[in-house]
Design goal:
The complex is a heterodimer. By secondary structure, chain A is mainly alpha-helical. Chain A is about 75% helix and about 0% strand. The N and C termini of chain A lie far apart (about 55 Å). Chain B has 12 helices and 2 strands, in the order H-H-E-E-H-H-H-H-H-H-H-H-H-H. In chain B, helix 3 packs antiparallel against helix 9, helix 6 packs antiparallel against helix 9 and helix 9 runs antiparallel to helix 12. Classes of the chains: A mainly alpha, B mainly alpha.
Chain lengths: ~280, ~280
């Protein structure tokens, strides 16, 4: 029996619709679930007061600081390395053995699971270099983790700068570096910033790496050699040890809101970037 | 003067660019240094194929964890791949541009939600459902497969959507001109043309599922025994490391690094296969 293509099509498309609706429903459910359970508990006091009794009561202020400072230092370390690598790969060489190796290295780095980064950070920064569980150990390990993302996105952004821009630079007698610094990088900036924002998002959500390298101290740090706890770690400890479901939901809601705002800013910048390019 | 400067900048940039490789080597070196001697001292066979994991009495066999990782990952693919592919095809072929502007950022937001949050939802919502309707302890292969499957959805969706969108219009026009229906065009022309990108997305999702730690710890139950059914509790390789790292010392800690070595080898092989597969297809 041959079924008319029109019926197969109707069947296939209805199946697709069903699966898509199901998929999107799950994903939307997750966001709504966390918000409905967590949003009511987010108050000014919750955000800006110190936790009491291991987080059972009080707020999340120290973890808020941790969530800002740890990714920030990681970005400060990884950005020059990542952008430098991207500039080297796109502007300073042709495809050859070295660039293939560099790309291979970055790809492998991108595929390594975070728990391995955690193990490495623990044995290298915390133990071997004797930095202890500290902000600096955590940030350095996170920098390793986000480097591939920054390389990849910066490379794409630099490649997207039209070649004619560079020709203008050269025709004015600028050297390659002058052209890169004054023409290519400024034009690629929105794309590079997108990569940075993505990396911040990933660092904020990271838990395993941070526990192993930055520890989980709930006190406000005095220096970068003190241990710190991020919101993700705080959430994990609250949820897993059953300290307070209410505070766990509220922390999760704050986490999702931060990631949502980072994404929105990134999205807005990317759109502006695309609009500018097509002009 | 200017040219001298250029040379210096070239050297500097090259050194920076080599940092990615240096980091990779540093990571591999330190993980191997901590883990490999242990594997050889215990014996590869004993370490990989023994089912007894009792750190207190010096027994370190990770077979149940290897099996656990395998089942959970397989389950996650069973959940994530069909949903992800169907979603990607529908979203990229049938959804108008303005709706894409809402759907794409939503997917990206979901990719950014921390894995602990997914894990927590697994514990609070999914595990009780599984316990009630399917039986077992709830924290099980089934629950963690579903949660991981959902977690890899954004990865599969966004990469597949991009590669389906990248199929040239002319391919579709050719199919339409031959009288094909939209669905025939999709499954005979568009999907085969986008295959390498879709495969890349699936493999990335696979890697993410194997490497996922925190969500699995919360939902899988973590008991060290060979699972008999999908409703049994399991411990994965990643969970094994994260659960015991906090208090492990001496040989026990080395055993955890050795677990890391096994995980690293699995992931590296997977990455290699993935890049090789994609490259082969591009050459064709």
């Amino acid at each position: 029996m041959i079924i008319h293509p029109r019926y197969t099509q109707a069947l296939a498309i209805s199946l697709l619709v069903l699966l898509t609706v199901f998929t999107l429903a799950i994903l939307v459910f997750i966001i709504i679930f966390v918000f409905s359970k967590g949003l009511p508990y987010i108050t000014f006091d919750f955000l800006f007061s110190n936790p009491q009794d291991m987080g059972k009561a009080g707020g999340i202020f120290p973890t808020l600081i941790g969530t800002v400072i740890l990714p920030l230092i990681a970005i400060l370390i990884a950005t020059p390395l990542g952008v430098g690598t991207a500039v080297f790969l796109t502007e300073y060489t042709r495809e050859n053995r070295i660039t293939r190796w560099i790309r291979f290295g970055a790809d492998c780095l991108a595929g390594i699971p975070s728990i391995i980064f955690g193990l490495f950070g623990f044995i290298f920064f915390v133990t071997t270099l004797e930095m202890g569980w500290s902000i600096i150990s955590g940030s350095l390990t996170l920098a390793f983790m986000i480097l591939p993302t920054i390389i990849r996105t910066s490379e794409e952004a630099i490649k997207a700068v039209p070649y004619s821009y560079r020709e203008v630079g050269f025709s004015l007698g600028a050297t390659l570096w002058q052209t890169v610094r004054k023409i290519v990088l400024p034009n690629a900036l929105p794309g590079i910033v997108t990569g940075i924002m993505l990396s911040i998002g990933r660092s904020i959500g990271e838990t395993a790496v941070v526990i192993f390298t930055a520890g989980s101290s709930l006190r406000l740090p005095n220096s970068i050699f003190d241990s710190i706890r991020t919101m993700s770690v705080h959430f994990y400890i609250l949820a897993r040890e059953g300290i307070s479901n209410q505070n766990a939901y509220a922390t999760a809601a704050v986490l999702i809101i931060s990631i949502l705002s980072i994404n929105l800013v990134t999205y807005w910048m990317m759109n502006r970037f695309i609009a500018k390019k097509t002009k | 003067m200017k040219l001298l400067n250029e040379k210096r900048i070239y050297t500097l940039l090259m050194i920076i660019a080599l940092s990615a490789i240096a980091m990779l080597l540093l990571i591999i070196l330190f993980i191997l240094k901590e883990g490999l001697p242990f594997i050889f001292l215990t014996g590869i066979r004993d370490f990989l194929l023994s089912s007894e994991w009792q750190p207190a009495s010096g027994k370190f066999g990770i077979f149940p964890m290897i099996v656990g990782s395998l089942w959970v990952t397989l389950g996650a693919m069973l959940v994530g791949v069909p949903l992800g592919l169907a979603g990607a095809v529908f979203i990229s072929e049938f959804i108008p541009g303005w709706a894409m502007k809402i759907i794409k950022p939503t997917i990206e937001l979901l990719a950014g939600i921390p894995s602990v949050v997914y894990g927590f939802i697994g514990v609070m919502v999914l595990a009780p459902l599984v316990r009630e309707y399917l039986g077992g302890p709830g924290l099980s292969i089934a629950s963690s497969s579903i949660i991981l499957g959902i977690m890899i959805l954004p990865t599969i969706l966004s990469i597949s959507i991009d590669s389906i969108k990248a199929v040239p219009r002319s391919y579709r026009e050719g199919a339409f001109a031959l009288g094909a229906t939209h669905w025939q065009t999709i499954h005979m022309v568009v999907i085969p043309a986008a295959r390498s990108g879709i495969i890349a997305g699936v493999i990335l999702g696979l890697g993410r599922a194997i490497g996922e730690t925190m969500a699995v710890i919360m939902v899988a139950g973590n008991s060290v025994k060979l699972p008999v059914s999908a409703l049994d509790s399991v411990r994965t390789l990643t969970a094994n490391i994260a659960l015991e790292m906090g208090y492990a010392t001496g040989r026990h800690r080395e055993a955890l690094f050795a677990t890391g070595v096994v995980l690293l080898i699995i992931i590296m092989t997977l990455n290699y296969v993935a890049t090789a597969a994609v490259r082969k297809r591009i050459k064709k």
